[in-house]
Please model this.
Amino acid sequence: MAKASDMSVGTFIRYNNELCVISEFQHRTPGNLRAFYQAKMRNLKSGKQTENRFRPDEEVEIVRVEERDLQYLYKEADALVCMDTNSFDQYNIAAFLFGEAEKFMKEGAMVRVSFEGENPIYATPPKSVVLEVTYTEPGLKGDTATRTLKPATLETGAVISVPLFIEQGEMIKVNPETGEYMERVKN
Model:
């Protein structure tokens, strides 16, 4: 067993017999009270996010996971088929592990998947993806000064808000975790 002080952001722990990942972790010392660790954790089975306090000497069960970089190939029912580029082994990764980022996944993208044994337990999409705008209303010339947004449909079928100057057929960079427009990509 490890101590709470051994945890950090990204650590996988078993808490109340459920597998969780630490998303935020802070050391706090409020006034004349004892110090504690404040942790935000996401339950990997239910997806619920909770906060908990740990004493510095409290014992926690840190779960050792293996992270693998896999290439996304295609979607099959409720799973994303990914391949290890070294061994060419294919894995069916449950789509819910990617959350909302699954809507922005494009074939050939590299993703990071965490395994406990041979079971995939957590997936991280790429930091950004470049997608083509397949449909959007035409923008007006000179509408670049304001921060006004309009809806745009991407090649994956996802709809996001983009600035008025973005035209149909352009390539844009999107953050798959938040679904936000980042920038226009020049060819």
About this structure: The CA atoms of residues 129 and 174 lie 5 Å apart. DSSP finds no helices and 16 strands in the chain. The longest strand covers residues 18-28. The chain has three domains: 2-62, 66-124, 129-185.
